[in-house]
Amino acid sequence: MAAFVAFPQSVNTGKRKVLKEDLLGIAKDVGFKETKTYLASGNLLLWGDHVGGEALERQLEDALEARIGLRTDFMVRAPGDLRAIVDGNPFKAEAEDHPSHVIVNFLKVPLPAGDEEILRAANTGPERFAVAARELYIDFPISIADSLLDRDWKKTKRNPVGTTRNWNTVLKLAELIGG
């Protein structure tokens, strides 16, 4: 039986409300036998017979739209992916010091060639980031709420499609899914 974590983008923010029952329902709709959610940001843990990848992302996106009329991107990772993300954290000391200010942005696709340099040049604050396969690690040494990074990146028109989770959540999800 395969396991996955599905990260929907921008749910339960503002007017984009998705109930736990809807997430669990779409998981059943696409054939998962065992499911659970973690926190209100929509982290969906899945166990069943499925190959994962882009096909699963599309199925979850379609199922959510069919169920509640909301179209949003899903980023899916297997336990091994989460283990690699945890092991590959370039901000380990920072994650020990301020884990809620170290985030992982789970990307839909790898960052396009050349975008890393553009995003680095646009950064006007103290934030640091590192690019991985389909993730961005970002350290906010002062404050996420006061950061101008999102504003800076939007100006570049290269703001990557993804969804973020803080380091505490990433660690807990890796533990729950066996990664």
Protein architecture, described:
- With 179 residues, the protein is an alpha+beta fold.
- The chain is built from seven helices and eight strands, in the order βαββαβααβαββαβα.
- It has a four-stranded antiparallel beta sheet, with helices on both faces. Strands 6-7-5-8 form a four-stranded antiparallel beta sheet.
- Strand 2 and strand 3 form a beta hairpin.
- Helix 1 packs across helix 2 and helix 3 crosses helix 7.
- The protein starts with a strand and ends with a helix.
- The model has no long low-confidence stretch (mean pLDDT 91).
The outline comes out as: globular
Counting DSSP H or I runs of 4 or more residues, the number of helices is 7
**What's the gyration radius in Å?**
16 Å
> Which regions are unreliable across 5 or more consecutive residues at pLDDT < 50?
none
Helix content: 25-40%
Number of strands: 8
Order of SSEs, N→C?
Answer: EHEEHEHHEHEEHEH
Mean pLDDT: 91
Q: What is the structural class? A: alpha+beta
Sheet with the most strands: spatial strand order: 2-3-1-4
| Main beta sheet strand tally, sense and closure | 4 strands, antiparallel
List keywords for this structure.
single chain, 179 residues, alpha+beta, four-stranded antiparallel β-sheet, 7 helices, globular
Give me a quick take on this structure.
The chain is an alpha+beta fold.
Strand and helix map with partners:
Elements: E1 2-8, H1 20-29, E2 34-38, E3 43-48, H2 53-68, E4 74-77, H3 79-87, H4 92-97, E5 102-107, H5 115-122, E6 128-131, E7 135-139, H6 149-156, E8 162-166, H7 167-177
Antiparallel strand pairs: 1-3, 1-4, 2-3, 5-7, 5-8, 6-7
